[in-house]
Amino acid sequence: MNSLVLSTVTRLLAPLLLVFSVFVLLRGHNEPGGGFIGGLLAAIAFILINKAEGTRTARRALRILPLTLASIGLSCSIAAGLWGLLSGGAFLQGIWPLIDIQPDGSKSGIAAGSILLFDIGVYLVVIGSVTGIYLALEDGIARSMD
After folding, report:
1. Would you say 121 and 74 are in contact if contact means Cβ atoms under 8 Å apart?
2. Segments forming the whole domain that contains residue 11
3. Measuring CA to CA, which residue among 99, 100, 93 is closest to residue 117?
4. I need a surface site. Which of 5, 34, 36, 104 has the fewest CB within 10 A?
5. At a CB cut-off of 8 Å and minimum separation 6, what does 49 contact?
6. Given a cut of 80, is residue 32 above it in pLDDT?
7. According to the model, what pLDDT value does residue 119 have?
8. Rounded to the nearest 5°, which phi and psi values hold at 92?
9. In angstroms, what is the C-alpha Rg of the chain?
């Protein structure tokens, strides 16, 4: 599509969508949001780039094949599940190695653990699968028009 307005707005909006998607991802395991909604927001950014600049530019902006991205995300999610299992618990049990529980019951440290790894995995799976399906549909439409 050759729209100056859409191209200009996309250059401003796509980075903001990507930053906001990471924000939603990182706040997700304590608040509403998380990997799925963050992944959808990131996929929307790449779809917007596709609509403004074309499929080639969207693939270049993604920098990695969508199937590869989804595979990495699935590996992260499985690793998060196995982390809980190998730590003596159950599959997908939450493990927080960087949090210390004080004798009075208070907690200190960084809330990063297996749940965040699982959310990152879901985030990558959603970006890879949604953009992969969308770009495949766009390629199919372009081939049928030729």
Report:
1. yes
2. 4-145
3. 93
4. 104
5. 10, 14, 57, 58, 61
6. no
7. 92
8. 70, 20
9. 19
Segment 61-76 mean pLDDT: 96
CB-based contact 69:61 (threshold 8 Å): no
How many structural domains compose the chain? 1
pLDDT level of residue 30 (50, 70, 90 thresholds): low
What pLDDT does residue 1 have? 64
* pLDDT for 19 beyond 90: yes
pLDDT tier at 29 (50, 70, 90 boundaries)? low
Question: What does the pLDDT average to over 118-140?
Answer: 95
CA distances from 114 to 59, 61, 98, 134 (A): 30, 29, 11, 30
Three state DSSP letters for 86-122: HCCCCCCCCCCCCEEECCCCCEEECCCCHHHHHHHHH
CB-neighbour burial class of residue 69 (10 A; exposed 0-12, middle 13-18, buried 19+)? buried
Dig out the tokens for 108 from the structure.
């200190």
The pTM for the full model equals 0.87
Is residue 73 within 8 A of residue 121, CB to CB? The reply is yes
